[in-house]
Give the backbone structure.
Amino acid sequence: MSFFRNKRLFIILIGIILLVALIGYSLSDQKRLTMPEQFIKDSVGWVQQAVYFPANYVKNVVNNLRDLKHTYEENQVLKEKLAEYKTLIYEVQQLKKDNEELREIIDKTHSIRDYRPIQATVISRSPERWLEQVTINKGEQDGVKKNMAVITPDGMLGKIQSVAQSSATVQLLSGFDQFNRISATIIREEGKDVFGLIEQFDHESQSLLFRIIEESEQEVEEGELVVSSGMGGLFPAGLPIGTVKEVVPDQYGLTSTALVEPAANIYDVHHVIVVDADLYDEEEQNESGDLE
Amino acid sequence: MRHLYIPITLFLLLVVEGVNGQLLASFLLDSDTQLVPHWLFIFLILIAIFYDRETTYFSVVYSVIFGLFIDIVYTDILGVYMFVYGIVTYIVHTLKKHFRENFTVTFLLGVIGIILVELAINTIYLFIGVAQFEWSHYFYFRLLPTVLANMIFLIICYPFFKNRLLSWKQGDLVDR
């Protein structure tokens, strides 16, 4: 009997050692998914899609019936807005053309604003709520890579945390800690832009902390739009992140921090766009490869 | 074919745990309350109580394998669910020898199991810095709702799976 007791203790000890080793392995920064991990993620992903799409269809039908009631009023509002947009579209086209011409003059053909969108659907959300992760149905084969930004039509949602062959895990903004900074800016006229870093998500106030690094006299006001500045190199410029909710001074009174409410609804996401920003880098590499 | 019923059920529960968060319970996500589905674990408890004999440890083996799957698919931090599910299923397996297999015992073992799993997982996450929380806040906003929600699942599952698991157990006997 005592032998069995020892054996049991032995197994538990090995288990603890294995646990520590595995945790250490998975928390290391440079980690990429191994083949078995990718295989399991993908196969679970396939079944999830098989479950998700029919279930989502039923849910949508129910929602649509509910929406029908409000259709008429919404239609009126939308028509008015459409008229406004028509003039805007004309302006935008004009500006685009101007921009292209100017760029040609200075021989700079692409900017940090350009990206290739990869459409994806969210198929599951991690039941472990601390982690704030969702799974999307596009992976390495569709060109998704680690650390790419993920956006919804409203604004930024998060970034790609790990990639399998045909699925990928997205770290949502609400799960960002101090290791996932985004360089951001508030755009104003005449070069009075405010620069700073989105540092982390504050769960108490349900908002992102935007630390303003420039010692600026410009007061940040509530309701101003914070967009990514593209200075960090990972994300393209001009992705809307959120609106300023409140401005608080930090504990030393030297800088101020703005509480930013995310523009995208983090809790109800279905369709997302993965932002492939290094499209042009690849092309350049290909071109130089051809020359050789 | 009969041997595959349990792994298939476990796999489906693994899938549904994730889709559920995305689809059905999305209205719950906005609030402070955290409801964490441990449906897979509830089924593992049922296996430990009704399928396993005193000398067989299918439930422990399954809990290690599917715990690792949860780690890979949903958390990207390997080992936590694997270790915790394994140990707690083993504890439940040991405890059940001293009781009769009825609903009250299953319910009580379920409550104990879920509380142990929750506490262990969150202690580990607190240690490695994945989660930051106050224990008092944790008890009200995560532990209590999680235990309640999973017990509802157990009550729904129990009549559906009890006899099935027992008959699968008998079937195994016939096979030998």
